[in-house]
Amino acid sequence: MDKKGIIHIKTRQAKALRGFFALFFLCLIAVNAEAVTWKKTNDLAIGNFVQTAEHASCKLETSGALACNGLKAESGSGQKAESVGNIYFETEVTTFGGTETLNIPNPADVVLKGNGCTVTFSNITPSQSSGTFNRKGAWIGGLLNELNVTFGADITIDGWCKGGDTAFSGVISIPYTSSNNRTALLPVRMGISFHLGITESQPLNFGALLSPQTNSTVTLSPEGIRSAPPAMLYASAQNAYSAGRFNIVSGGDTLSAVLVLPESASIASGANTLGVSNFTARLADGSPVASGAPFTLNNGDTLLFTGATLHVPANTPAGEYSGSYVLTISY
């Protein structure tokens, strides 16, 4: 009887000891499983814009403030993102205490391809690049310790986005380090509507001329043919002159448009000015385009050439004369 009692007691002690080790082992597993996790609350939505320049850009601050060049907001002021993207980082607190350190390096660039253009998000910067979580004060499954992070970026649009309204969407991958290394994902959206894009690819240049003794005119046709009194012609191999040339990008379907040429303009050298009038235009196929008359814009690029007449008074002072003129295209 005594031996059985002793054996029975030893058996109970062994079971209790094994149970203690099992409980301790499970607690270690739970503590080691702790890490910083993430959740997305809002997409980063830049908004909808009309592209007005072939190379456009925006600066997005982590506050959501937005400053753009070459883009016009379709609604609102365009000075704030439609939605500031948020990533919440969190970790559960435990009675074992301790801390969890989070580090967020700058994410890699995001490049989105469109029809004729590329949208790039670069210099993507978090509002906070690191944080320390306090785990003290509750058992596993208790309150969460959170850090809200927003992101800023430089946004560039290269090339004319063709094909009407274009919705660009992508994902910013945000790697972060804690006791476990993970990657958060932040969707990003931006809409670009295409209207006409006009780029001067060659200036209207009358070239070098000699000052006349009488009031004179110099005519430059859209074909690039210059007519001037012989006494004004300057004999030089470097005497370059050219018709004006514009690239018009319609982006969508073939459009009917109306060109309005200026009635007059002027060029100046210091206080001295010369008048320019009788502006003319033609397309690449030689078709003339009259001011106020409709013409057809191709689906893609249309070349438009311009010419004009320069008025040069007698004994005009020598100088480098320059100025500008305005073409208006409605459609």
Describe the structure.
The chain is mostly beta strands and 331 residues long. 9% of the residues lie in helices and 49% in strands. The strands form five sheets. Strands 14, 15, 16, 17, 19, 20, 22 and 23 form an eight-stranded antiparallel sheet that branches. Strands 1, 3, 4, 6, 8, 9 and 11 form a seven-stranded antiparallel sheet that branches. A four-stranded mixed sheet has the order 5-2-13-12, with no helix packed on it. The longest helix has 31 residues, at 2-32. The chain is elongated, with a radius of gyration of 35 Å.
Please specify the SSE layout and strand pairing.
Elements: H1 2-32, E1 37-42, E2 44-51, E3 55-60, E4 66-69, E5 71-73, E6 86-92, E7 99-103, E8 110-113, E9 118-126, E10 130-134, E11 144-158, E12 166-176, E13 182-194, E14 197-202, E15 216-220, E16 226-227, E17 244-249, E18 255-260, E19 264-269, E20 272-283, E21 294-297, E22 301-312, E23 322-324, E24 328-330
Parallel strand pairs: 2-13
Antiparallel strand pairs: 1-6, 2-5, 3-4, 3-11, 6-11, 7-10, 8-9, 9-11, 12-13, 14-17, 15-16, 15-22, 17-22, 18-21, 18-24, 19-20, 19-23, 20-22
